[in-house]
Amino acid sequence: MSEPGSLIRTLSGRQAARNFHSYVINEVGRAIVAGEMPVGSSLPGDAEMMDRFGVSRTVLREALKTLEAKGLVEARAKVGTRVLPQSRWNLFDRQVLAWKLESGPTEGFLAAFDVIREGLEVQAARLAARHREAEHIRLMHYWKNQISVLSHQPEPFALALFEIHRLVAEASGNPFLRAASSVIEFGVAVAVLARLDADRNAPAEGLAATVMADCEALVGAVERGEADLAADAMLRLLRPEAGAA
């Protein structure tokens, strides 16, 4: 579950793993991020894990290698595999962020995340206004219209909003901003969930009412090449209270 859009799809519930390898990765990774397997604790032995998940030793070892690459665990000879602290996790990994979203990120985690997201996306908007191409603008307009159409469908709405943000990063021409799609996607998912939590009955005007004006301003400024206005519109989109400042 590492392709763009996969994190947002968790808004409609947990996805079934595609194979045994994915199943083991998802179950163990989710348990670690949720704190069900505490930091510093050792994972059960191979025999117990193989029996629990119904997989071969080869599948188990490959799954643990994947989790080790994400920074969640560390294997040591004669010691076993232990759970690492969050400071070692790859927090730019889409799957790690999906587990974080599912387990419920703390206010402190979200505050730290907002600093990074804002720095990336405001700069991306500024650069997009300078380097955008006609195809970027065409697609931004398409997804802006989809946001309005899909206003009462949380997951499709979130995917459309993600595409706007992703296209801004793509139009920036900066390869590092383009590679930050997992951060962008996590931010969109968190924002949509917060809106749903605020009104579980789904507002009559739909989810688009909270973002449409800022999306219009953002796409328009990028299209016209107005870097400062694009940055301001992105800031309002990320931090609605900034619009009142």
Q: Can you describe what's shown?
A:
The protein has 245 residues and is mainly alpha-helical. The protein folds into two domains: 8-88, Winged helix-like DNA-binding domain superfamily/Winged helix DNA-binding domain (Arc Repressor Mutant, subunit A, Orthogonal Bundle), CATH 1.10.10; 106-244, GntR ligand-binding domain-like (Four Helix Bundle (Hemerythrin (Met), subunit A), Up-down Bundle), CATH 1.20.120. Helix content is 62%, strand content 3%. The chain has helices at 20-33, 46-53, 57-69, 94-103, 107-131, 134-149, 154-171, 175-178, 181-198, 212-224, 227-238, and strands at 73-76, 80-83. Strands 1-2 form a two-stranded antiparallel sheet. A hairpin with a 3-residue loop joins strand 1 (73-76) and strand 2. Helix 4 packs parallel to helix 9. The longest helix is centred in the middle third of the chain and has 25 residues, at 107-131. The chain is elongated and about 60 Å long. The mean pLDDT is 91.
Number of strands: 2
Low-confidence stretches: none
**Oligomeric category:** single chain
CATH topology group of the largest domain: Four Helix Bundle (Hemerythrin (Met), subunit A)
Strand line-up in the sheet with most strands: 1-2
Count of all domains? 2
Gap between N and C termini:
39 Å
Structural class: mainly alpha
Which CATH architecture of the largest domain is right?
Up-down Bundle
What's the CATH class label of the largest domain?
A: Mainly Alpha
- Mean pLDDT across the residues is 91
Order of helices and strands: HHHEEHHHHHHHH
Share in helix: 55-70%
Shape: elongated
